[in-house]
Specification:
Number of helices: 1
Largest sheet: 16 strands, mixed
Number of strands: 16
Length: about 260
């Protein structure tokens, strides 16, 4: 078509195989090609990123993921359905992913974050920090393997299986509050080389909230624990921390019920 531009507004992909690799330098490659070949970003913080207004719909996709900064092992994930809405200002993601067998069942994710988070560094002086939210739900997860892989180190929790729901709010890259609902089984913790604790069931809700620049509040409610076939009475507790201020030191207040 002469003197005209064809703009793609929707892209649907179904029943395909995708290779994603993170090389030793931390760069992501899709089908062995750099992400820069697919998306050209504007890195001037005062200019838009020039992302296309594009809805990407994926279903029935098998993703083979390898991370050379970690073990280098390949893991297979199944994208049941995933929608990604791109724009200069916001990116919206909503989807269900079947995890690799090593990590358990499946996760659901939903988020709507400002596009400028794709840039490294702080917010431009001409732009105000923007709030956004993230939701993750997981079913039948092997959480100890997921956390050990993501954090890339051994953890004192060597076994934990179950469901978890996380809802978090951010201001730019700063976490403002987080809520986690837990329904876990077979929680095994290595306290030290000679002491291992096992809980058959661990359920409850954790709520964390930032208070000012350096203070925070943690509330744990409706905690239920089964250990050695004995059920502990459900309980609540909270911890509030405030940084040092003129005339007083650091403040820590705890309460339990």
């Amino acid at each position: 078509i002469r003197d005209r531009t064809v703009l793609l507004s929707r892209l649907g992909i179904e029943g395909s195989h995708i290779r994603v690799r993170r090389d030793a330098a931390g760069k992501f490659l899709f089908q062995d090609r750099s992400l820069d070949e697919f998306v050209q970003l504007e890195f001037d913080p005062d200019k838009p990123l020039r992302l296309p207004d594009l809805l990407i719909e994926l279903s029935g996709i098998e993703v083979l993921f390898t991370d050379e900064t970690r073990s280098g092992d390949a893991y297979s994930f199944g994208v049941e359905q995933l929608e990604i809405q791109l724009s200069d200002k916001q990116i919206m993601i909503d989807g269900d992913v079947e995890l690799a067998p090593e990590f358990g069942g499946r996760i659901m994710i939903a988020t709507d974050f400002p596009t400028r988070l794709l840039r490294s560094g702080s917010v431009s002086s001409r732009q105000a920090a923007q709030e956004w939210r993230l939701y993750i739900g997981g079913e039948e997860l092997q959480l100890e393997k997921i956390f050990a892989y993501v954090l890339n180190r051994d953890l004192p929790v060597t076994d934990v299986y179950g469901d978890i729901t996380i809802s978090a709010a951010f201001n730019h890259r700063t976490l403002q509050n987080l809520t986690a609902d837990l329904d876990l089984e077979n929680v095994v913790m290595h306290i030290d080389p000679l002491r291992v604790e096992r809980h058959e069931v661990l359920t409850g809700r954790l709520e964390w909230e930032r208070d000012g620049e350096a203070g925070w509040l943690l509330a744990v409610s409706d905690i239920g624990v089964e250990r050695r076939n004995l059920f502990m009475q459900r309980s609540d507790f909270s911890i509030a921390v405030q940084p040092p201020a003129p005339g007083r030191g650091r403040s820590i207040r705890a309460n339990s019920q």
